[in-house]
Amino acid sequence: MTFVLGLTGSIGMGKSTTAEFFRQAGVPVHDSDATVHALYAGRAAALVEAAFPGVVIDGVVDRKKLGERVLGNPEAMRKLEAIVHPLVREEEEAFLEAARRDGAPLVVLDIPLLFETGAEPRCHGIVVVSAPSEVQRARVLARPGMTEEQFELIHVKQMPDAEKRRRADFIVDSSRGLDEAEAQVRDIIRTITSDPPSQWQRSDNV
Fold first, then answer.
1. What is the tens place of the pLDDT at every residue in 113-157?
2. Residue 42 annotated as lining a ligand binding site
3. Can you give the pTM of this predicted structure?
4. For the chain, what is the domain count?
5. Which of 87, 114, 120, 159 is the most buried (most CB within 10 A)?
6. Known binder of ligand: residue 174?
7. Is 17 annotated as a binding residue?
8. Which residues bind ATP (predicted)?
């Protein structure tokens, strides 16, 4: 049986770095954001352009233009999600099928809005990457082109970090440095691979 571990965390918490630690430890990772990027340059482009004319440039969705159309607009965001989410799920299912065929004991689904989109039932366990709010804000505002307004628009859409931590099976504190975060990831891998997956709370959902 392949244990499916959901990985999530709010913007600026260090989720992408944590996902890379899982990869370096030999755990297959499905990156939802990377999948969306690929879809925007592929089969989703025409669908998004039909829904939001003018956001596709040279066959690729311009994420900045798209963001201007959907951020802060719940109806537009729902329209976009109705296009993209089913395609991402198809890619995720193909990833899981391949992992099971290969006999992988553990895989990671890197899903930024895991709780917000109701993805918990697709996972045996969930790890949340977290850091103090002041660390999160400083990291995000240090990104090129990021403004306070953009941060707040993204932040308000995400479930509060405290609630995510409450729902988590594992927590990675990314504020203690890279070495400590990597050590936490290795501890999680050891815990999961040493316990029978059937013992886990969410094991009947996958």
1. 899 889 999 999 999 999 999 999 899 999 998 888 888 888 888
2. no
3. 0.86
4. 2
5. 114
6. no
7. yes
8. 12-17
